[in-house]
Specification:
The protein has helices at residues 13-17, 31-35, 38-44, 82-96, 120-133, 156-160, 172-179, 198-205; strands at residues 2-5, 49-53, 59-68, 102-110, 138-143, 183-196, 212-214, 223-226, 231-243. The two termini are 22 Å apart. It has eight helices and nine strands.
């Protein structure tokens, strides 16, 4: 496959975004998710929006990432707020004119008919290469374990610690990163946080919520809802992983 970026091929934006998702698209309804629009990537982070093309020149995968400053005097540890905080840091750095030192991967999406063919690892390698090419010193990822959707009630520290008999991480997406040399730094317990009304959640997920704990398609943690306040909140944990360059 051939990998290009949005800076060179802005005409591919819509078709790349049209590749679909990997579940849990409702997280893009939060403040951080709404911040990373295609247009903002085109204007600010086009070199970090990578697109893999097939032999006919059609998009077959995309990888989105944002450059940010880390570590720094005011950013000594990867944040507990994970994905949300990384996007906020990247936006702050654009506004402040701050020189980035690291690249944070936000998502890797493969065309549905090509999933399961080992394309995710090459896309991660492409992100690492882009980080190196642009003078960034590391690739960090707030990893959303794929298999966690099947066990949303299991605490993330317990789930993320599971290993197979061969010693590798049990979750296949965490394992893909580990095989590329990434190390687990920590669980980020508040990686994605968003709230909405019952009507919002019905529109986002198709689920009619009930009082208390709810599980929605694509979620890897419960949604806690209150009919009295017409409010439901989702707090998703992820796992910070650090890729050596």
């Amino acid at each position: 496959m051939r990998v290009v970026d949005l800076a060179d091929r802005p005409d591919l934006l819509d078709s790349a975004l049209g590749l679909g998702d990997v579940g849990g698209q409702f997280i893009y309804q939060g403040a951080s998710g709404r911040m990373i629009t295609g247009e903002r990537f085109r204007r600010h982070w086009a070199r970090y929006f990578l697109i893999a093309l097939d032999d006919d020149g059609a998009p077959m995968a995309r990888a989105l990432s944002v450059p940010l400053t880390f570590p720094a005097e005011d950013r000594t540890e990867l944040p507990d707020h994970g994905w949300d905080q990384a996007i906020e840091w990247a936006a702050q750095d654009v506004m402040d004119g701050r020189e980035p030192t690291a690249l944070c991967a936000l998502e890797v999406v493969i065309a549905p008919h090509l999933r399961g063919r080992g394309l995710a690892a090459p896309m991660l390698k492409a992100l690492k290469a882009r980080a190196a090419e642009t003078g960034l010193r590391k690739l960090i990822v707030s990893v959303r374990p794929i298999g966690k959707e099947e066990e949303p009630a299991v605490p993330m520290p317990e789930y993320a610690a599971r290993r197979r008999d061969d010693g590798l991480l049990a979750d296949r997406w965490l394992r893909t990163h580990e095989r590329l040399g990434a190390r687990v730094v920590k669980v980020c317990p508040f990686a994605v946080t968003l709230s909405g009304s019952f009507a919002d959640w019905r529109a986002w997920t198709g689920v009619k919520l009930e009082d208390g704990e709810n599980f929605v398609p694509g979620g890897i943690a419960p949604v806690y809802a209150s009919t009295a306040y017409d409010t439901a909140t989702y707090v998703e944990p992820n796992v910070w992983m650090d890729h050596p360059m």
